[in-house]
Amino acid sequence: MARSSKTIVLLPGDGIGPEVTSAAVAVLSDCAAEFGHRWEFVELPFGGIAIDRCGSPLPAETLAACQCADAILLGAVGGPRWDSLPLDRRPEAGLLAIRRKLGLWANLRPVVLREPLRDVSPLRPDRAPRINFEIVRELAGGIYFGEHSLERTSGFEVARDVESYSTPEIERIARFAFDRAARRSGRLVSVDKANILASSALWRQTVSRLASDYPSVSLAHLYVDNAAMQLILDPAQFDVLLTTNMFGDILSDEAAALLGSIGLMPSMSCGEGTPLFEPIHGSAPSLAGRDLANPIGAILCATLLLREAFALPEEAAWIEAALDAVLDAGYRTPDLTASGALTFGAASAVGPSFSAASTSSRGRGVSCSGTFRVSDSFTVGCSGFVAQLRTRLREPLPQLERYGWGV
Ligand code: IPM
Ligand code: MG
User: Per the residue annotation, which of 225, 234, 328, 376 is the catalytic one?
Assistant: First the structure.
């Protein structure tokens, strides 16, 4: 009998969204087969493609399916094709609408430098001994959802976007962040601009007031300009970083840069309705359809989904172990290699089998069925990377040591 039976709505969206979403689905399907789960995938239009097909970035049918599902996997939205539309009719408006309509007020962005990708970080190794923290971004308020206006007065135009936060909005996201910190190493840093903005002054005061409810958590505050600098100077000081919608958007791209590529970071949006998982990279129109996308952000969305939405940490760890093994063997999508973009070969590159790759000679630029080895790494496309991962996932689970340690 299936151990877990769930419905996952897929919103692949635009650009590289469909490629990376199918990578996550492939891995989740392998996981279901291995562990005896039954997951039904329901794919629906969302974003630019939904504007073209249904006239709206979030069609009613898509929203209804999302409301009934157990989890949502989203690819990416937007592209030049829709850039000239008014702000409230663009693909991005669909993203804000789904967040608001599902009551997704918390956004979690884990920033983890995986051991095999240490050399991909732009930081010197002595500056990045350990990068493993979470950004908690408020997602349903602030300037994104304040009043937006454009007026024409005395011959010129004035545009206005209102940043506003209420104490209940701040309290719910702050409690979420305190809880995350309490389950980790207990260090919470709240980021604001309380020396200038009234909304930030209320933010700081409210977060401080809640601190006494969480005696195991130590709370510190940083102004956002200082936080941006500290992220580069000493990312290891962070454990959980709590911030507003706008500051969270900006700081999470900066945090992704610490890892070496925005293609590596997943996110979870949650609150009242169905949780939604989405890599933080955009739709990358210039990479779309060329098999150049990095599927790791989407694959880590799958593992975040397993841990946070389905409470299946063992399954998530199984996938992440295979992912690290593939990275350890040297497989890299072009965004992770300095020279990869130049040496990348066939669009549908599928590399040698996992074990063959790990025994072939290093550093000679060997070409094997569409995969090119450059110094210590193979540059592969999205599909080639996923093929390697699936080969690894199909290897038998390590057997228990039959005679005990050391015999
Ligand atoms: C993100 C994105 C979105 C945001 C855009 C596409 C609306 O940048 O999720 O980080 O700003 O929230
Ligand atoms: Mg962003």
Answer: 225
Ligand 1 near 92 CB (within 6 A): yes
> Residue 139's closest CA among 267, 299, 11, 283?
267
Instruction: Look at ligand 1, atom 9, and give the residue with the nearest C-alpha.
Output: 280
* Per-residue CA distances from 94 to 155, 169, 211, 244, 294 (Å): 33, 22, 35, 20, 24
What was the pLDDT predicted at 397? 65
Catalytic residue among 14, 144, 192, 331: 144
The answer to whether 73 and 305 are in contact (CB under 8 A) is yes
Does residue 255 contact residue 265 with C-beta atoms inside 8 Å?
yes
Secondary element (H or E) of residue 6: strand 5-13
> Whose alpha carbon is nearest atom 4 of ligand 1?
249
Residue-wise pLDDT tens digits, 324-355: 999 999 999 999 987 543 333 333 333 333 33
Q: Which atom of ligand 1 is nearest to the CA of 278?
A: 9
Region 77-94: what's the mean pLDDT?
A: 96
Q: What is the pLDDT of residues 253-280, one digit of tens each?
A: 999 999 999 999 999 999 999 999 999 9
| Of residues 247 and 345, more confidently modeled | 247
**Mind listing the pLDDT tens digit for each residue in 27-45?**
999 999 999 999 999 999 9
Best probe residue, ligand 1, of 14, 89, 95 (max atoms within 8 Å of C-beta): 95
